[in-house]
Write a structure and sequence with these properties.
By secondary structure, the protein is α+β, with helices and mostly antiparallel strands. Helix content is about 25%, strand content about 10%. The termini are far apart.
Length: about 100
């Protein structure tokens, strides 16, 4: 398993483009390989898990109604709930898929 640092997650999150409906950027959820959430880059538990991912590592996206500016967005989720069903094992693949999804310029 390739080592992923908090800085790499933060850089990947900064590369994400905004939602096509509300323009708010989604957040990256750090998960284990089975898809169990560990948190976000600003959570101590998630940062600790990144340092020692005892059950693998994967990532997904969250676009919560709690984010400012998402009140009328049709794809928002509940806090901690991912968008869609994809789990990514690479930050680069996650960013590429979100930023080049169908309907994007």
């Amino acid at each position: 398993m390739k080592k992923v640092t908090p800085k790499q997650v933060e850089e990947a999150e900064n590369k994400l483009v905004g939602c096509p409906w509300c323009k708010v950027k989604p957040r990256i959820i750090i998960k284990d390989e089975e898809g169990n959430p560990k948190g976000y880059i600003d959570d101590d538990n998630a940062v600790e898990y990144l340092a020692r991912p005892w059950s693998g590592l994967s990532f997904s996206l969250e676009h919560s109604y709690e984010q400012k500016g998402t009140s009328h967005c049709p794809i928002v989720t509940h806090p901690g709930e991912q968008i869609g069903a994809m789990h990514y094992y690479s930050l680069a693949a996650l960013v590429k898929d979100w930023n080049t999804r169908k309907g994007m310029k």
